[in-house]
Amino acid sequence: MIRHHLAIAAIRLTVRAAAFIAPLVTPLAAQVAAPQSLFDRARAPALAESPPLIVPVVLTSRLPDGPALHVVEHRELPLVQVTLSIAGGGRLDRDLPGLATFTANLLDEGAGKRDANALQSELAFLGASLSTGANWDATTISLKVARRNLEAALDLMADVVLRPTFAANEVRRQRDLRLASLMQQRDQPGALANLAFSQALFPAGHPYRNALGGDSASTARLDSAVVREFHRGSLRPERATFYVVGDLSAADAQRLLSTRFRGWVASGIERRPAPVLVTPTQPQGIQVILVDKPGAAQSVVIVGTTGLERTNGDFAAAEVMNTILGGSFSSRLMTNLRETKGYTYGVNSGFAYRPLPGPFSANSGVRTNVTDSSLVELFKELRAIREAPVSTEELVRAKAYITLAIPSDLESTSQIAGEMVTLANWNLPLAYLREYVERVNAVTVADVQRVAKQYLPAQSAYVVIVGDLTRIRSDIDALALGTVTVREVGSIVRE
Amino acid sequence: MQRVRPLLALGLTAGLTAGLTAGLTMSLALPAALSAQGTPLRVPVTVDTLPNGLTLIIHEDRTVPVVTTNVWYHVGSGDEKPGRTGFAHLFEHLMFMGSKNAPYPQFDRLLEAAGANNNGSTSGDRTNYYESGPASALPLMLWLEADRLGWMLETMDVAKVDLQRDVVKNERRQGVENQPYGLVEDHLAPALYPAGHPYSWSTIGSMADLSAASLDDVKSFFRMYYAPNNASIVVAGAVNPDSVRRAFREMFAEIPRGPAITRPSPAPFTVRDTLITLEDRVQLPRLYLAWHGVKEYSADDAALDIAAYVLAGARNSRLTQALVYEREIATSASAFNSSQRLDGDFQIVATARPGFALDTLKAVIDAEVRRLAAGGPTARERGQAMNSIEAQFLNRLEFSSAKADRLNAYYYATGTPDWFQQDLERYRKVTVADVQRVVRKYLNAGRVTLSVVPQGKKELAATQRIVQ
C-alpha cells in the first residue's frame, strides 16, 4: 500500500519537458549548516540556488533511406535505448478504431524467419526488452539492451519493423484476446467513465470518440489484410525517427542502424488521417451522465470539457495553473477533497495533449455517500481559481515543482529517449527545455487566472459518474446541476 | 514484498492517458542485459551509525544532479496486533500529517517548492518513505525526515487519525472493493498462512480494524517502532558525503533511542489443500493457485524465482505458451515467487478466455508443473531466465531511487547495503537441477486453489477434480 498513487506524475510526465543540469552542483557544505552549527531546527533549511539548466547534446543525422537519427551519448552504464517513432499512430485509424495499436502489438508476434515464440525467446535470451505500441501521435518500437548485445538485438528489431509476419493465426489469436480484454471493461468503473466522457465530448466522426484500443465491432473486423495494409501505408521511412540514448557514439549508432534499415522503402499508398469535419461537442450548461454500477463501493467521477492544443501559446501558463488546481499532491483539489474532507484517496486534473485538442478533466474516485458533496467541492475549486487570483506562494511553488523536477525525469536512457519523442511530437527539440523553463518562470498570477477563465469548465461541462445509482441518484438530482442522462453499460462498451 | 500499487493508475489516470496506456506499451522499466559475466555490479557506499542506533548509508552518484532520500523503518503489517490489521499502513499516512517544526501541510508544500516528489509504502516487513528531486533539496529532505522521527507525536491528534482513516478506507474501496478481482488478497492470505501468522492478513487491513484504530494505538506504535535504532536512511545521488554526514549528525543525533523490539517469530506450518470460490463482478473467471514458499534470500529462493520465470515470465514461457498460445484457453498467465522476511508463497494466476471453466485451465497448469518437475528446465530456458534477471539488475541501477531502496533492503536483510553482486550470484549458481528440485519440493505440496467467477457462475470454478 502506498500513501498516494502518483496518477498526477503520470500526467505531468507526458506534458513535462526534461533536461540535464550541469553535473556539478553547489557543494552541500554551502547549503547546510557549518560545523560550528548554525543549524536551527525550527527553520527549514534554505535552498541553494538552482544551477542553470544544461541540455544534453543531441547529434542529429539521417539514415541513407530517409529516417532521421537523434543520438545522446549517455555512458553511465553499458546500456542502450533505441526508440523508433513513426509519426501517425491512432490518428490513422480512420474507420477502424484500434487498428494502429493492434498493428503495433502484432509487430513482435512473429517477424522475419521467427514465429512469436522464437522471437520472444531470442530477445529474452539477449536480455533485451523490446516493446511496440501506438498512441495518437505515433507508432513506437522501443528496444533496451546491454551494449554488448546491441547488434544481435537490432537484427531482431529490424525484422519487427520491416518484416513482421502478420500470420493469419497470430492475427486471429490477438484479435480474440483483445475482444476478451474489451469485454472486461464492463467491470472497470474507471474505463467506463473514460469511455462515456469521450463519447459525450467528441461527436461521431471525431477520432477521439473512439478509444485507441478500439471497440468490439471494429476489432471484429481486424484481419491480416487490413493489418498489412496499415503497416505498408503507415510505417514508412520518411515518417520515422530513431532516438538512440546510451553507451555508444553517434557514429556507431549511424553505422549499426544504416546496415539494418537500408532498403526500407515506402510501398503502397500512404495512409493519411481522415479529415476531421466536426469539433468537440460544447456542453449546454452542465450535462450529467450517469452510469449504474450496482453495489459499487465508490463513485468514479469525471468533470471536464475540451482542453487546449499543445502548440497554444498558453501552454506554460495552463500547466502552472493546473499544477495549482489538481496537478500535484499539494494542489487545491487534493487538499480539499482528500486532505480536508476525506472524500477520496486521490483526485487530479489535467489537460491531455494530442494532435487535435484533447480534453481537460478532473478525475476522482469518491465514497458513494459523498458523491454529491464531492461534486460541489470540485466545482467550487474550478470556480475559485477562475474568480480569484492564486497566492504568490502557490505560484512560486508550482513553478518550482515544474522546473526544478526536470532533471529527475531524465535520469535513465529510456526517460531521455521518451522526452525526446514527446517533444518531437510537437516539432520541438530537446533544447526547447530551456525555453520551457523560461516560459514557466514568466507566468504571472494574472496569467493563471486568465487561462483558468479561458480553459476550465465552470458554467458548462460534462460530468460523468459511474456508481451505484440507487444510492446516489436522488442526491445528484437534488444538486440541480443541469440535465441528467443515464447511460447503459452495454451501450458504452459496445459503441 | 511490496503490494500491488493501488488503483488510480488502473482506472482514473486513464482519463487523461487512456490513449497512451491503451496502446503504447513502452515502459520505463525495461530490462537489459549485463556486460560480460566478469564485470561485478558495484554500488559503492559509506555506512555510519549514530549512538542512537540510526544508520546512514550514502551512495554518491553524480551522473545527474538528482538526489533520493529513502528511509526504512523495520515495521510492517506483519507487526500488527490482532484487531488492528491495516494499522502499519494507516500509520504511514499519518507520517505526512506534520511535525513540530514542519506542521501540516508543510511537508508536501516545502518539498514541492524545492522541486521534489515524495511518497511512502508499507509491506509485511517494513515501511519506507522517500523523497526524490534536485540535489539542492537534500537538506530539506533530511530536516523533514528528522522532524517527523523526533517531533511528530506532539502534533498528532484524533482529527488527523480520523481524516487519514477515511483516506485509507477510500484507498481500500478503490483498490479492493471497487476493483475486479480486488478481494482476492483478503481471502488468499488467511488461507495460506495460519491464524495469527504475520502474513495471514492483508496489508491494507479490514474496514472494521481500520475503524478501531485509536490515537493511543498511534502513540504506542510510534514509540515502539519509529525509533532511530529501528531505521536506516539511504542518501543516493549527486551529494558531498562529508556534508551529508554533518547534516545527518546535526539533525538526527539528539533523537533518543527507542526500546528493544521483539520481532514476530511464527511457528512452522504447512499449507493444507483448500478450495475457495469467490463470486465477483467480473466477466472472466480467474484461477489462483498458491503454495507455501520460502523466506527471501534463503537457499531455494533464487531457484523459485527462476521457476516462476520458466513457467510464466515471458511470452514464450511454458504456461503462457500452453494456455494462451497453443490451447487458447486463457487470456494471460503469470507466476510469482513472493518471498518475504519471515516466509513466502508461490503463486500461479491465469485468467480464462470467455467460455472456459477454470478446471480446464487447472488441468493444463498441473500438467505443465508436472512436466517441469519431471524433466526440469532446459539449459536454454535457464539461460533465458538468467539473462532476463541480469538485465533487470542492470536496469535498476539507472535510477537513484531504485538503488536507494535496494540498498536499504539489502542492509536490513544481510547487513551489507551493496549486496547487488552477491544477490546476482545467488541466481547464477542456480542449476537446472535446482529448478527441478524446488518445483518438486514446493509445487507438489498442499495448496490453495482460489477461483474468482462471475456472479451466478459457480459452475466455472475450479474443483478438486483431476482432469487429464
Overall body shape of chain A: globular
Largest interface: pair, residues per side = A-B, 144 and 127 residues
Query: Mean pLDDT score of chain A, rounded?
Result: 91
Low-confidence spans of chain A: 6-35
Uncertain stretches of 5 or more adjacent residues of chain B: 1-36
Radius of gyration of chain B: 23 Å
Estimate the global geometry of chain B from the Cα principal axes. globular
* Rg for CA atoms of chain A: 24 Å
The arrangement of helices and strands of chain B along the chain is HEEEHHEEHHHHHEHEEHHEEHHHHHE
Q: Span from first to last CA of chain B?
A: 35 Å
Spatial order of the strands in the main sheet of chain A?
Answer: 3-4-8-5-7-6
Q: What percent of residues of chain B are in strands?
A: 15-25%
* Overall residue-averaged pLDDT value of chain B: 91
**Oligomeric composition of the shown chains:** heterodimer
Strand order of the largest sheet of chain B: 1-2-6-3-5-4
Query: Residue share in helices of chain A?
Result: 40-55%
Based on secondary structure, the structural category of chain A is: alpha+beta
Number of H- or I-type helical stretches of chain B: 16
Kindly state the percentage of residues in helix of chain B.
Answer: 40-55%
Number of strands of chain A: 14
Main sheet attributes: strand count, strand direction, barrel closure of chain B: 6 strands, mixed
Give a description of the structure.
The complex is a heterodimer of chains A (495) and B (468). Chain A has 18 helices and 14 strands. Chain A is of the alpha+beta class and 495 residues long. Chain A has helices at 7-15, 99-107, 116-125, 150-162, 168-184, 189-201, 216-220, 224-234, 250-261, 315-325, 332-340, 371-387, 392-404, 413-424, 432-441, 445-455, 469-479, 489-494; strands spanning 20-21, 53-54, 59-62, 68-73, 79-87, 129-134, 138-146, 240-246, 286-292, 298-306, 344-351, 359-367, 461-467, 482-487. The relative contact order of chain A is 0.17. Chain A has a six-stranded mixed β-sheet with strand order 3-4-8-5-7-6, with helices on both faces. A six-stranded mixed β-sheet of chain A has the order 11-12-10-13-9-14, with helices on both faces. In chain A, helix 2 packs across helix 8 (224-234) and helix 10 crosses helix 16 (445-455). Chain B is of the alpha+beta class and 468 residues long. In chain B, strand 4 and strand 5 (127-134) form a beta hairpin. In chain B, 58% of the residues are buried. Mean pLDDT of chain B is 91; it is low at 1-36. At the A-B interface, helix 1, strand 1, strand 5, helix 2 and helix 3 of A face helix 1, helix 2, helix 3, strand 4 and strand 5 of B.
